[in-house]
Amino acid sequence: MTKSLLRIAGVGLSAFSAMPMVNGQDHRPNILWIIADDLGTDLACYGNSVVRTPNTDLLASGGMTFMNTFTVVPVSSPSRSCLMTGMYPVSIDCNQHRTLNKDPLPAGVVPVTEYFRKAGYWVSNGDATKFGRTGKTDYNFTFDGKLFDGPDWSGRKPGQPFFAQMQIHYPHRPFEADERHPVDPGKVEVSPVYPDHQVTRADFAMYLESVQHADECVGLVLKKLEEDGLIESTIVMFFGDQGRPMVRAKQFLYDEGIHTPLIIKFPDGRSKGKKVSDLVSLADIPATSLKLAGISIPAYMQGQNIFSSKKRQYIFTTRDRMDETVDRMRSVRTKDLKYIKNYYPERPYTQFNMYKVTMYPVLTLMKIMYKKGELSKSQSVFMSPVKEPEELYNLRKDPYELNNLAGDPAYARDLKKLRSVLETWVSTNDKGKYPEDDAEVSYWKDDSEKAYVTKMKSYGLPPDISDEDYLKWWELRLKSKKP
Fold it and tell me: CA triplet 263, 316, 431: central angle to 5 degrees?
């Protein structure tokens, strides 16, 4: 955005839709999404004093930092399907993580890139670590049209505005050590949901070092934007597709798995350094982006413009099958309370999942400590063979969601209200197929069993290794900081 246009527009981006052309030139803003994979709010600008994130901190200091942003599903493919449509994945049959036969989107629903393209925007999706390379997609739908015009904004016509996504694969597992700026495991804050053990600390330190690599990628993207003379015409949005890749986080509906950063920087520096406490869903990102570009938000979109006067009362999140692991959970969150409904309470939280078994050393640690009775009461709940049908947490008093209040008479009214809110939302929006076709479930079960054997062989380990020997292997691996 040029300074001359800002003087003409006076206040804000609403002027773009009314006056996109000035002196024959297109002055609509570029919209840039920078998306990190599996990023919780573990940034210095969000209060983490151990991690080093200068590029993200600089972005935050010049923009707006949203403190209460949450994904719709704590795993990549449904979350990214939402980001491309502005729709809850359960409402468009995109809710299962990994699908053998993907379906087209429902009639009338199209990817957000279509709206930008029809409005004259160049649309792209690239890899932040290497410009010119296509970035991650991982959507749970098929589309006959063209999703993107290229991997970055370089192929557009002179002066043509762009809608670009730049993907950062960090801090997704396997983690990558940061040899220049190592994180001291002794200084990390260990959440009380996990045992304070050297394995926990080493694993979390490696995660934070991967977060630092993500921050470096943010710097690369911003540098490229500046080199191309686009800083003053681009609205930058930085966020993650879900929360941390930790045992009780990714794939689960606790805040650790759904809370992600969101920073929005305007080229004119408006609301510079402002921290916003409004509840925001990642479903709101597409609608907000369209509005900022002066494009009408489709009536069917379930996300909303986060800059409108209408603020969210509730955050809704869902979890279904993750790879081979069949489960179903739904939650509703306010600023103060969270209600979770577990549809399969007879199944443990820690059902076998190949990805987690082969990537999460703390899971093996907790299995051993649970068998020995060495976990705390709240840690043991997560490792138990069954779940509670309902969970209710006071997030202000219990931010780690350790004390389930669903059976507390003092919270009976809150439980009833949030149960009703969630039931209404589910009855309106949840179009998922339950149970899934047996062939689909069997395919992913067989696939994961083969993948498990292959992965363990790549580690040089037998598939039937004992938990104790497996933990020793993890300890050596973490000590050497191998990914």
Answer: 125
